[in-house]
Every structure is written in structure tokens, then in C-alpha cells.
Amino acid sequence: MLRKIAVSGCGNVGTALLELLCEKRAELKEKYGFEFEVTLISDLFKGTVADKNGLDLNAAINSLHTTNSLTGLNKDVRGEFGELLDSAEVNMLCEATPTNVETGEPALSHIKAALSKGIDVSTTVKGPLSLAYDELVALAKQNGAQLQFEGVVMSGTPFITMLNHGLAGCRILKIEGIINGTTNFILSKMYSGASYEEAFNTARELGYTETDPSGDIDAWDPAVKVVILTKMLYGKEISVSDVDRTGIANVTFEDMERAKEDGCTIKLIAGIENNHGDIKAYVAPKKIPMTHPLASINGAINAATVYTDNLGTTTIIGPGAGRRATGQAMLLDLLTMAGKK
Amino acid sequence: MLRKIAVSGCGNVGTALLELLCEKRAELKEKYGFEFEVTLISDLFKGTVADKNGLDLNAAINSLHTTNSLTGLNKDVRGEFGELLDSAEVNMLCEATPTNVETGEPALSHIKAALSKGIDVSTTVKGPLSLAYDELVALAKQNGAQLQFEGVVMSGTPFITMLNHGLAGCRILKIEGIINGTTNFILSKMYSGASYEEAFNTARELGYTETDPSGDIDAWDPAVKVVILTKMLYGKEISVSDVDRTGIANVTFEDMERAKEDGCTIKLIAGIENNHGDIKAYVAPKKIPMTHPLASINGAINAATVYTDNLGTTTIIGPGAGRRATGQAMLLDLLTMAGKK
Questions:
Q1: Given phi > 0 = left and psi -120 to 50 = alpha, else beta, which region is B83?
Q2: Helical segments of B177-321, H only
Q3: Which of A143, A169, B72, B157 has the largest count of CB atoms under 10 Å?
Q4: Is some CB atom of chain B closer than 8 A to the CB atom of A103?
Q5: Helix or strand run (H / E) with residue B120
Q6: Distance between CA atoms of A224 and A149, rounded to whole angstroms?
Q7: Based on the number of CB atoms within 10 Å of its own CB, is A255 exposed (0-12), middle (13-18) or buried (19 or more)?
Q8: What does the alpha-carbon distance between residue A274 and residue A163 come to, in Å, rounded to a whole number?
Q9: A172: how many CB neighbours lie within 10 A of its CB?
Q10: How far apart are CA A139 and CA A143, in angstroms?
Q11: pLDDT by residue for chain A (341 residues), tens digit each?
Q12: What is the DSSP string of A144-194?
């Protein structure tokens, strides 16, 4: 079965996905029987192009790299998103537009449009999932569509696949994770002796911080991820304001020194605890012993430890960001969805 | 669809699986739609019992715990294994008899009998896979059966599921793992200052070593696991004698002291490297820097780091042994196979 894919959003992640699809076309067919065309590429600023018989991926990638737009393809189309999905005969949408955690838009409308047409969706965008998880899951079910989102936590590190598939049969009792790379980079620098200001400035110089750093520093980013995981695991009604959230701005050099004297370090831990159905979600700087599986996770790396009834403790470590790593998350979603139909 | 399960081998793992199935019957139905009866339980020493309508699991577990036999059920049967599978109407076999890495028996014959009848097989037994991987995979394919073996490496820690599913779309370039708990326990003790003899004796006192400790110390156990992983990942013809294998018996207190002075530790690393199709498989004590993801894996814990083209480095850490953890591996296999049919 030939899949017709739409890529919505051509920032780093969408472009990396196009590159992976282009580079791996033969490998994906041979290894997974996955055959595809990309029939729609849409970006608010770079243009929208479509061809129901398949766009030239090399040309699209080249146009994005050289002109930062899609106009070089001469395949421009206009129209409402749902109509574009129809005319490009799309059956898999990869949604990678910028995250807006307050409205979820434009990704939320795109995902709804696709699911309501029975189109499978992979998304790396957190907003729609934290705001409308239940609605989207119901919409998918109602229309026989699938919704996958490996990339929303830990980029392509297959943490969500591990929770949903690798640990099937277990009860998830507790999760503790380092799921924000920027703050982990800063705390790692502080453990090595830097002050908060020095560490923050280094992170900024290396491009790890956003224009508005509060999403990381005040722990909004990991809190939104915790909301999505809590909904996914326990179906609980929860919003980001329900997460007990403390950022790292008040962690001092002295706090870290005292932790070190006690054989500990300080990490920004995102956690979910399920005490017989009583579910607690939090993000906070925590003093953890150096023997803790997360203590040695340094720099921009992410990691999560899962406590289960059958298996005790399992930890997964990997990249938490990066264009190709997040493109890989979408590629995995596509293969997962294709394998289930 | 009601699954009829056979459990072959009632040692620690088989019994733990029976306990998990008994304890989680309602949960498995509700969460995964997995409904089953265990219709055959077979053990060379403890007896063989069958009922095509389903055995009483509580009674079986109780009989095993109190009398170390299955005779308490009054459901004894006799016959050739294949005939027993037929008369008990089995469609999923869980094979957990003791490993014989030289002949693969009796597990090899059991697995062949099941696959040739189109019965899905989960096994935790390494021998048949290291000796007859290609034959078993072909037999499964030919008869529309599935063959899963999450438990052969890292017990229920879902490393094999991560390789096959979580990293789909990636090329696996290299694996480095600590996949033998006994030797890792000994080397961890030596890092803490013990001599080889002291560390070995502690491992023996804690019951971590086998009667014949050479399977661990001389690295036969991880070498067999490397063979299975190499076959699974690359389809390569390889036997345990092709693995470049060095055990830990010659690692001295002085070696470890020198490693520590260099900011390193010594770990027994099982590795597979794929250099553009040239595949190297080895197990050897290696000096690795303390910043390496495997350096902080201490005690009987297992871990593996996977290097891929799309994702860089991903590491998974978890139990490498244990009755319930290995029972969980078989439970995962059952759910995986049920989800694919």
C-alpha cells in the first residue's frame, strides 16, 4: 500500500523528516515494506506545495535549504487545510508546526481536520495534546485513525514507545525524568562549579535557551510534557496548572555545594506518581544521591526512570532534542502506524 | 479471541509467568483485550498437566510452591510434546526449560514442534536461538507463526523490543552492553576496592554464580547473547566460536587501580560493530571513561547503549535477571504476538 504523506511545518523538524524520508526511501521499502510519496508540504511562511502523485523531495529540500521557501518547486497551491489534505489524497499527516501551548494552534486545527477524515497523524507539537488530548483520542477512534506522538517527550528517544509497548503487561507506578535539556545543562554546569548566572549565560551562548527562557527555567516545558504523559498513562483529567511546578531559578551555588557534600546532585525532576489511583504530577529541582540512575545524566541529554510492578526500575537515556532526532520520532510514528494497518 | 497457552518448564521463570498470568487476568483483559486459558503445563521433573478448557492456575501455582510438583492438580497427561500441544489446543507456547547451549534441547524440539503447527512461541531459552536461529525464523514464517524472545537478553528490560520497534527507521551501527550481571557485580566490587577473589567470593555467597561459574567468568553467557543479537539485527551466519571472547578472570586489582587513576573503570563489554556490513562481535573487559553511559552501571544491573544513524546514542538500563522480570519478558511477548494477530 502506497502511503501519501503530508508534512505540515518546515522548520528544523519538518525539514529533517523530509531529509530522512528522501535519504531512506529504498531502505524503508526493503526493511519495512513502507512505500510512500509526500504529496503535500505546508508552511505558513515558506509556502504550500502539493502534487497528489508525489512531490520531488530532493527539489523540496534543496529549495528549503537555498531559499528558505518552497516556491522553487513550482507546485504552489492555496486553500483551506482540510481541502488540501483531500486534494493531495493524504493518508498520513506529520504535524510539526511551532508549538503554542496556550491555543494549540495551528496544529490543533490541522490534527482535527486530519483525524476527522480518518487520516493517521504523527505530531511533535505539544500544545494540542496537552490541551485537547481526550478530544483528539476520541476523534481518532471515531474515525478509525491513529494518533502517535513519540517526539513530544525526549525527541526520538523511544520513551513513549517503551511506556506503551516495551512495558506492556506492567503497571507504571512512578516515573522520574530529566526531560528538559536546557535546565539539565545549567544544573550540570553548576555541579561542575559554575554559578547559576555563569551556567545560564553559557547555555544562552550555545543557543540552548529560547528567546523567552521562562519555558525552560520556570519548567513550563517539562510540565506540559508531564500533562501529556499523565493523560496517556492514566487517562486523568489534568492541565498544566495542576502540575506542582518549581523551576530552577532559585537553585544557588550554595545549594549545589551542600548537595555535593552529601554525595548528591540537584536535578530538575519531572515526576508522576500513582499511589493506587491517586496521581501526583510535579516538576521540581530535587536533591538525588549520586547512585540514582538519573544522577549521572549530564548536559542536554534526557533520561527517564520508570518504576513498575513486574520489572522494578528501567531507565532510558537519549537525546531530548535535535532536528534529526525529532525527525526520527516522526519516522518511527509513521512506521508504527503503517504496521498497524 | 481466547488464547490457549502452554507453559513448558516450571523453574523460576515458568512459575513466575504462571503467577503473573494468574494475578493479572482481569487487567490483561481490560487493558489489552487479552483473554487466555493455560491449557498445558509441562516440566520434565514436576510433571505434565493439561486441560483443553483451562487449568486452574491457582491450584497449579499452589501445587508447585507446596510440593514442587504438578501432581496436586490431578490433571496428569502423558505423550509426545507435539501431541500434547494438539490435544490441549495450544496456540501460544511459552518455552522456559533450562538452557543447554550445546544442544539447545529440550527447548529446540519443543519450539520446532510448536512453530511447525503454526503455534506462536515466546522463549527465554538462549540455546535454540544461538544454534538454530535461521531455521526457527524460517519455520515460523513458513507456518504463519510468530517467534518472540524478549527474555533472552536483559530479562524483561525491553531491549529487544527497543531494537526491533523503538528504533525502527534507524540503522544500528554499534551496540555496547553490560549483559551479564554476575561479572558486572564482581567488577563493581573491584572498583570499590575488592580483589578479584574477594569480589568473586561475595558473588558466590549471594548466589549470583552458577555451580560452574565459567559461563559467566569466561563470558560464554554474554557471547551467546551477542550471537542472538547479531543474527537478529544483521542476519549474519555466526556461532559462539566466532565471538572474540575474553572473560574477567585475568582482571587484577592493579588493572582496576590503574583504570581509576585514569578516570576510568573496567567493565565486561559485549559489543557488536557494523562497519558498512563488516560485522565484529566481541565480549571483553574494557577500560571505559567514567563519562561513558555504561560506567555508572553497578551491581547485577544490565545496560546497553545503541549507536544509530538517526538518533546518536540511546541507552537502556534495567534488571538482567530475576524470576518476575523474566516472567514479564514472556508476558510482553504474549501481548506483542496477540497484538499482531
A1: alpha
A2: 181-191, 196-205, 214-217, 220-234, 253-261
A3: B157
A4: no
A5: strand B120-123
A6: 14
A7: middle
A8: 15
A9: 16
A10: 6
A11: 999 999 999 999 999 999 999 999 999 999 999 999 999 999 999 999 999 999 999 999 999 999 999 988 999 999 999 999 999 999 999 999 998 888 999 999 999 999 999 999 999 999 999 999 999 999 999 999 999 999 999 999 999 999 999 999 999 999 999 999 999 999 999 999 999 999 999 999 988 888 888 999 999 999 999 999 999 999 988 999 999 999 999 999 999 999 999 999 999 999 999 999 999 999 999 999 988 889 989 988 999 999 999 999 999 999 999 999 999 999 999 999 999 76
A12: T--EE-GGGTTTTS-HHHIIIIITTTS-EEEEEEE--HHHHHHHHHHHTT-
Q: Let me know how long chain B is.
A: 341
Strands A172-178 and A264-275: antiparallel
Pairing state of beta strands B312-319 and A312-319?
Answer: antiparallel
Q: Does A26 touch chain B (CB under 8 A)?
A: no
Backbone angles phi, psi at B186, to 5 degrees: -65, -45
Which residue in the set A32, A315, A322 is minimally distant from B318, CB to CB? A315
**If you ran DSSP here, which 8-state letter would residue B152 be given?**
G
From chain B, the residues in CB contact with A327 under 8 A are 310
* CB neighbour list of residue A288: distance below 8 Å, 6 or more residues apart: A264, A265, A266, A267, A269, A294, A295
Q: Residue A92 corresponds to which cell in the numbers above?
A: 498520513
Task: Measure Cα distances from A302 to A283, A306, B125 in Å.
Answer: 14, 14, 34
Record: contact A166-B169, CB cut-off 8 A: no
Q: Distance between CA B200 and CA B213 in Å, rounded?
A: 10
> Shortest Cα distance from A47 to chain B (angstroms)?
27
CA dihedral B240, B241, B245, B249 (to 10 degrees): 100
Please give the single-letter amino acid code of residue A128. P
For the record, the C-alpha cell of A69 comes out as 521557501
- Distance, CA of A207 to chain centre: 19
Distances (CA, A) of B300 to B63, B93, B187, B321: 31, 29, 10, 8
Residue with cell 511551532: A98
CA distances from A75 to A2, A10, A25, A41, B294 (A): 21, 16, 22, 10, 50
Give the chain A residue nearest B163 (alpha carbons): A158
Residue with cell 518549581: A246
**DSSP β-ladder status, B244-245 and B147-148:** unpaired
For cell 545496560, the residue is B303
- Backbone phi and psi for residue A239, each to the nearest 5 degrees, phi listed first: -125, 170
Find chain B residues with C-beta within 8 A of A331's C-beta.
168-169, 310
Does the pTM surpass 0.90? The reply is yes
* Annotated active-site residue in A126, A225, A267, A286: A225
Q: Which of B171, B274, B314 to mutate to test the interface with A (most CBs of A within 10 A)?
A: B314
- Distance between CA atoms of residues A90 and A3, nearest Å: 8
Sheet containing A120-123: order of strands: A47-50, A35-43, A2-8, A92-95, A120-123, A147-148
* Catalytic site includes residue A225: yes
Which grid cell is A143? 474515525
Q: Which helix (H) or strand (E) covers residue A173, if one does?
A: strand A172-178
Establish, for the pair of chains A and B, how many residue pairs have beta carbons separated by less than 8 Å.
130
Residue that has been written with the C-alpha cell 493517521 in this structure: A120
| A24 interface with B at CB cutoff 8 Å | yes
| DSSP 8-state class, residue B165 | I
